[in-house]
Design a protein that fits this description.
Layout (H helix, E strand, L loop, with lengths): L2 E4 L6 H16 L5 E5 L5 H10 L5 E2 L7 H4 L7 E2 L4 H11 L3 E5 L5 E6 H9 L6 H5 E4 L1 H8 L2 E4 L7 E7 L4 H8 L7 E5 L3 H9 L4 E4 L7 H9 L3 E4 L4 H9 L15 E2 L4 H10 L4 E5 L5 E6 L10 E5 L15 E7 L14 E4 L5 H11 L6 H15 L9 H13 L4 H10 L3 H4 L2 H6 L2 E6 L2 E10 L3 H20 L4 E8 L4 E6 L2 E2 L9 E3 L2 E5 L4 H15 L6 E2 L1
Parallel strand pairs: 1-2, 1-16, 2-3, 4-5, 9-10, 10-11, 11-12, 13-14, 16-17, 17-18, 20-21
Antiparallel strand pairs: 5-6, 7-9, 8-12, 14-15, 19-20, 21-22, 22-25, 23-26, 24-25
Helix pairs in contact: 1-13, 1-14, 2-14, 4-5, 7-11, 8-9, 13-14, 14-15, 14-16
């Protein structure tokens, strides 16, 4: 089963690069099925880093809750709406199926056929309409195949039509009298080696004559059959067996259920389950967005779908994890943030949480502990995460462990990290390339402190010139984010890499905010000299302010 290595929502470079690198290490050690994933597309800087390293972007997955395609059977056995009983019954018996999807000749789903409805074709007896039980809608070609017979004469054997089966088991006089009750072109006469039955049938120009017991028509009677356009089939079986096999050549068309329920392969299992459980169908066709049959599903398939297996990197809270993570099996956590308190697991898990500047530092340490040297492209990938999260070792979150890890990675990647870091920070300004709504979602994380839910987004820029031009629209976008997510407030931290300082823009301030002790330069805007770390500097500051405020106080607009 695939294990997905995920960074947090609205992923930054460290989240994506640590997922890629750790998935690579797992594939080389204990989990060859490890796949790096992320909750959204990488930002411009991360794209630059991955392109420079020559590493593929992780798989984008916005939700890990099981979909119908995850639990359906994709090896689908089907039947055609032009098939007959014995063909479909043999197929269903071979594969032990209770129901089967029916396709048209063009491959379009037209219905489903259950085993009880299929058996009704042969074994149903209608006391009110005795003719109905002797009617067979099929072709002479299908009938010959059903009885395992051979032709002595063929006339339009592939034409589909409704035939009335008449067994020549009575006297010739009684047979001839009954023969004239029905249209000759609909009659299929079944007889052993009895010329007294065969002659009147051939003279009456019946649609077909089935000679049982392995017998054949004499040359004279065969010429009569040819003259009157009568198809002649030789059956190797006795009359009773032959008649039963003829009935098994009935077309399945009348037994097909045309009013049935289908499910989309992309529908969540938990959403589809109520409809599936209430339905009376045995089997549910699974369709893709183009309406093509891609699988089948039974009721039992949706009862206990397999849980996805996840490894979380660069976060440890469900509020920051991919949607559906709370119902997944969390196998490991590799992180350098505070403990959020929302993570739970049913089994013991490996949990690595260290006060370092980057999750990629922890992944690099895992490589070294395993005695494995990463490929140069993976080394640059990890270096990118460290450079991004520590502002190239200038952030107060930087530790000697980060410095040592970056030095080790620089020996593996042959390029110049100084030049790479300069290019990395110069490219992909969010303020230059993104809408205001996208900017406030850039590296956005939600927190809960002292009963207050809020978000902090962070972007890195070179200088504040672009920020001043867009300040008002960014403040509006923050207010919309607060409203849409029902938060108490939202903050945007704009960090100037050149001066190691930040501006803090708020949607609104909570009570007690006067204790921030940093200069207010405009409405909802504060200058944070020397503050560059959301994790180590800004979040603890906000937590202290909220702690000092009275629980009953309100948010200031």
């Amino acid at each position: 089963m695939t294990v997905y290595v995920f960074g947090h929502r609205n992923p930054d470079t460290d989240a994506i690069c640590s997922a890629i690198a750790y998935a690579d290490l797992l594939r080389r050690t204990t989990r060859p099925d490890a796949v790096a994933a992320c909750c959204g597309p990488p930002n411009a800087r991360t794209e630059f880093a991955l392109e420079k390293a020559g590493v593929e972007q992780p798989r984008i997955m916005m939700d890990v809750r099981p979909e119908i395609e995850d639990v359906s059977c994709r090896d689908v056995v089907t039947a055609c709406d032009e098939d007959v009983f014995f063909e479909v019954y043999q197929r269903m018996s071979q594969h032990k199926l209770r129901a089967i999807p029916i396709l048209s000749r063009q491959g379009h789903l037209t219905g489903i056929l259950s085993l009880p409805d299929l058996l009704e074709l042969v074994f149903h007896v209608d006391d009110h309409d005795p003719i109905h039980s002797r009617q067979v809608h099929s072709s002479l070609e299908k009938i010959c195949s059903a009885v395992g017979g051979q032709y002595q004469n063929q006339v339009e054997i592939d034409r589909r039509e409704t035939m009335i089966v008449m067994v020549g088991a009575m006297s010739s006089g009684g047979f001839t009298e009954r023969l004239h009750r029905y249209p000759a072109e609909q009659l299929l006469v079944v007889s052993g080696d009895r010329p007294t039955i065969q002659v009147p049938a051939l003279e009456h120009s019946v649609r077909g004559l089935v000679v049982t017991g392995g017998y054949q028509l004499s040359p004279g009677l065969l010429r009569l059959a040819e003259a009157n356009n009568v198809t002649v089939i030789n059956s190797p079986h006795d009359t009773a067996t032959t008649v039963l096999r003829i009935k098994s050549a009935r077309s399945i068309d009348s037994a097909i259920l045309r009013d049935f329920i289908t499910v989309s392969n992309k529908q969540l299992v938990e959403e589809a389950r109520p409809t599936i459980q209430r339905a009376r169908q045995f089997m549910f066709p699974v369709l893709d967005d183009e309406g093509r049959l891609v699988g089948v599903l039974s009721k039992s398939d949706v009862n206990n779908p397999p849980k996805p297996q996840l490894i979380l990197v660069d976060h440890n809270e469900f509020t920051q994890a991919v949607a559906g993570a709370e119902n997944a099996d969390i196998l490991e956590v590799l992180d350098h943030h505070r403990l959020g308190g929302t993570l739970r697991s049913q089994q013991p898990i490996r949990f690595i949480n260290e006060p370092v500047g980057s999750t990629c530092t922890l992944v690099a340490r895992q490589f070294r502990a395993a005695g494995i040297t990463p490929q140069p492209e993976i080394a640059l990938c990890m270096a990118s995460g460290i450079i991004s999260d520590t502002l190239f070792l200038r952030s107060p979150t930087t530790t000697d462990v980060d410095r040592d890890a970056l030095a080790w990675l620089s020996q593996i990647w042959s390029g110049n990290l100084e030049e790479f870091a300069q290019e990395f920070f110069e490219i992909g300004s969010a303020l230059r390339t993104c809408s205001s709504g996208q900017v406030v979602l850039e590296d956005c994380k939600e927190f809960t402190e002292h009963g207050r839910r809020f978000s902090i987004s962070q972007i890195e820029e070179i200088g504040f010139d672009l920020f001043w031009k867009r300040k008002d629209e960014l403040q509006t976008a923050l207010q919309e984010l607060t409203t849409n997510r029902r938060l108490d407030f939202s903050a945007l931290m704009i960090t100037d890499i050149a001066t190691n300082s930040s501006m803090l823009l708020m949607s609104r301030e909570p009570d007690g905010w006067d204790e921030i002790n940093y200069p207010r330069v405009d409405r909802h805007l504060y200058e944070l000299a020397g503050i560059v770390s959301r994790k180590k500097q800004l979040l603890p500051l906000i937590a202290r302010i909220l702690d000092s405020a009275k629980p009953s106080t309100l948010i200031r607009s």
